[in-house]
Amino acid sequence: MINVRKDFPILTRVHNGHPLVYFDNAATTQKPYQVIHALVDFLEHHNGNPHRGAHVLSVEATELYDAAKKAVARFINAKSPDEIIFVRNTTEALNLVARSYGEANLHAGDKIVIPISEHHSDLVPWQRVAAKTGARLVYMYLDDEGHFTEEDLAKIDGQTKIVAFAAVSNVLGMKRPIEKVIRKAHSVGAVVVLDGAQSAPHMKSDVQAWDCDFYAFSGHKMLASAGTGVLYGKMELLKAMEPFLSGGDMIEYVEEQSTTFAEVPFKFEAGTENVEGAVALHAAIDYLEGIGFDAIEEHEYELTKHCLEGMLKLPYVHILGSTDPEEKVGVISFTIDGVHPHDAATILDSYGIAVRSGHHCAQPLGHHLHVEASNRASFYIYNTLEEVDYFLQTLPLVRKQMGLDA
Ligand code: 7TS
Fold it and tell me: Under a CB-based contact definition with an 8 Å cutoff, are residues 215 and 236 in contact?
């Protein structure tokens, strides 16, 4: 198992008399010293506004920003760092594609196909594209365990112009058959938008092997600071797209009544960039690559397998989606009979355990499953089997505290 807890200062916190057990990693991850120090070092020694000046700090900020792009390109195996656009988060990346690609290319009668399990950030922007263009938003409804079915995939047909899906669902934790869906989409001429918010932290991303057209993810879910996300796009698509935001740093020439735009990727990065965020993301990538995704996947598999086995022994606990650890990253959503998820999360918090409760920003999935709210435990590289054991021992106490049999 990976042993990196000493790198994460926040994990020494004690909460309600218990060592903090942080199981809300699908929401955001904690940060190692290596990332914190890179961030502080930039602010202490190199802070400048990139791409703007000839002075030393502007030059250094530019170099660090560009180095971060190279690291991201390597991390997801993009052909070129010019295909990497830094945005605030996955949400902004998906909105950029929806507005700049979707609104420009879709027409009445076209279809956008997405799974019912999508996060609102990969759903609401497509609803808005559909409303503006007259396109139809069509859902894949999945089988009882949360898998894509052949019937679902058949919805990707000749009218389909966009297929968008999360490589890993943030509620079900299930890994999607990425290449199969992309092949199907491309066979009918559709463009694929892959939401990588829950895949980039947990598995090797390879945009060239997958052949996705766009890939979006957030730095804060993979050890970096909030405020830096990534949009990858194939160069020929990005070149043909209009800018999303406009203003400083994205122009070539500005006349009184007209403007010509800078090349990709600068065309999509209006305003002063979040350089410290890019520096933090670079440090996070170096850190994750130092551990390696084979070890990360193995570690999360052990935690998930152990946790699922323990939970399945509790008759009052119900898991959403597949219970096969091979099919999941370390994300387990569940309900406890007779206990509202907010009560469960509050009681677990009183034992020092942080889990998520609510609809997890996937309300259409909740309606579809008739599970409007649930709890979610999600693991990362610093979680341990001992923490999972403590969580499993605490679940019966949640029931007892509500006056129910455990
Ligand atoms: N897509 C997926 C699959 C996500 O899990 C999330 C965030 C987003 C998009 C949006 O990412 P953001 O960085 O732009 O906010 N998911 C969650 C979650 O599951 N709990 O809190 C945030």
Answer: no
